[in-house]
Amino acid sequence: MSNRKLRMGMIGGGKDAFIGAIHRIAANMDGQIELVCGALSMHADVAQESGRMLFLDPERIYNNYEDLFKAEAQMPADKRMDFVTIVTPNFAHFAPAMLALENGFNVVVEKPVTFTLEEAQQLKQKVEETGLLLLLTHTYAGYPMVKEARQLIKSGALGKVRKIHVEYIQGWLSRLSEREGNAGAAWRTDPKKSGKSGCMGDIGTHAAHLAEYISGLKITQLNASLNTVVEGRMLDDDGAVLLRFEEGATGSLIASQIAAGEENALKIRVYGENGGLEWAQMEPNTLTIRWQDKPAEVLRAGSNYGGRLSSFATSNCRTPGGHPKGYLEAFGNLYKNFALTLSAKIEGVEPQEEWLDFPSIDDGIRGMAFINNVVASNESNEKWTDYTI
Question: What is the pLDDT of residues 263-300, one digit of tens each?
Fold first, then answer.
């Protein structure tokens, strides 16, 4: 394995930016990565101040991402960054991601991967042309018990999957927060910055990815109803989708950001011929399995039960049973697996299967297709729509 840390750059995520700080914590969690440079804001003064606050080399604090790629590409191989993390709003993902790949840099990018499906397809083509890695930070795929649920279904223990219900309920947009000084609300509810969907693009995509990731089945058709509940808002803030999956499974997806009082209530239930499982993001250590013909099981992250848990779950646990393994750790698992895979590639060795288990450009394309198809179904008076890409 590599005898050095991977060198990371960052675009966006300057001071007072929520998600940039999360990425830096996650990247630092396992000691494999160091932040060496950044273009941390579109505003030069903020970019410079943010870089100083992070103790970056003054010569590697850039005022824009074009300068970053130009300068880093010319640096000696033992100094230049290995990958760049892009944590800008949705509309500003594609251009820096493409420029990174064109300059030979691997990419970590926030979801949704781009502003449009067409951009995502172009990005996939560039990833394939260059052979570089791209990590899409669908955070919830990093939780140990989500990985356990995926492996349990993959093993066939539940039998053929029949039903999938997933919901992602928040309350933080119950008021017109975008006009009350909330910067995160402002860009997420602006179609020029967020895209053609608000709630479904922001959190519905997470729910759809989780349903496909755990079940191993792809959505084939959907029937969507979108609502804009808060008067004056430009994009949907609530909605529901009926789903049809491969192999005859059916299900539903509910996403809402106007459920006053709710925090981050992501929950999924999957039912097969022999039983079902349930996982909730606000109780992430627990995976409940309900069998048709025997008592229910409650599995807990960090408690291996003499080898009962899969290697995909145990390799993503850092602490013994009873110690919460939450959002930051899940984010850290995405970075860890990406870093281990990239280090293996640099050293010319084969990465372990567990390391390769992180969301990629293909997940990004399906997320953009989900947004397109949900909006199309809603605009067609809630008709069944084929899941086209």
Answer: 999 999 999 999 999 999 999 999 999 999 999 999 99
Token pair recorded at residue 173: 């947009």
Question: How far apart are alpha carbons 24 and 37 in whole angstroms?
Answer: 12
**Amino acid occupying residue 173:** L
- Condensed to tens digits (0 to 9), the pLDDT of residues 215-267 reads 999 999 999 999 999 999 999 999 999 999 999 999 999 999 999 999 999 99
Neighbours of 103 (CB within 10 A): 16
| Residues ≥6 apart with Cβ < 8 Å to 238 | 199, 226, 227, 228, 229, 255, 256, 257, 258
Nearest to 99 by CA among 71, 140, 58, 57: 71
Q: What's at 332, amino acid-wise?
A: G
Distance CA 29, CA 85 (A): 15
User: Largest Cα–Cα distance of the chain, in whole Å?
Assistant: 65
Sheet strand arrangement including 286-291: 297-300, 286-291, 275-280, 265-272, 161-169, 250-256, 238-245, 219-227, 385-386
